[in-house]
Amino acid sequence: MIDRRQFLVSASALAASALSPVMAASAAPRPWPLPPQHRRVPTDVGGLGYSRMDDYAWFQPKDWHAVLRAPDSLDAPVKAAVKLENDYTDAMLAPSKPLQKELIARMEALDALSGAPVEIRSGDFLYYQRTPPGSDYPVYLRRPVKGGPEQVLLDVGLEAKGKKHYKLGWIAPKHSLDGRLFVWAADRTGAGIFSVFVRDIASGEMLVSDITNGHSGYTLSPDGRYLYWIGRSDKGRPSTVYRREIGKPGDTLIYEEKDPAFFIALRTTAAGGHVVIKMFNGDMTEVRLVPMDRPTATPLLVEPRTDGLRYDVDEWNGQLLVLTDADGAIDFKLMTASAASPGKANWKPFVEHQPGRFISAVHPFAGYLVREEWRDALPRLVVMAPDGKEREIAFDETAYAISVPPDQGGNAPTMAFSYQSPRSPRAAFTLDLASAKFAPAGAPVVSKAYDRERYEVRRFSAKAEDGALVPITVLMRKGQKLDGSAPLFLYGYGSYGATIDAEFSPSAIALVEQGWIHAIAHVRGGAERGTEWWRSVLKQGKKKTFTDFITCAEHLIGERYTSKGRIVAHGFSAGGLLMGAIYTMRPDLWAGVIAQMPFLDVLTTIEHYENHPLGTTSFPFWGDPRVPEDHAYMATYSPYDHLRKAAYPSLLALGGLADDRVGFWEPLKFAVKARSLSTAGNPILSRTLLDAGHMGDPGATAQRAQQASFMGFAVWSVGKRWGDVLQRPTAA
Question: Measured in whole angstroms, how far is the alpha carbon of residue 721 from the centre of its chain?
Answer without folding.
Answer: 32
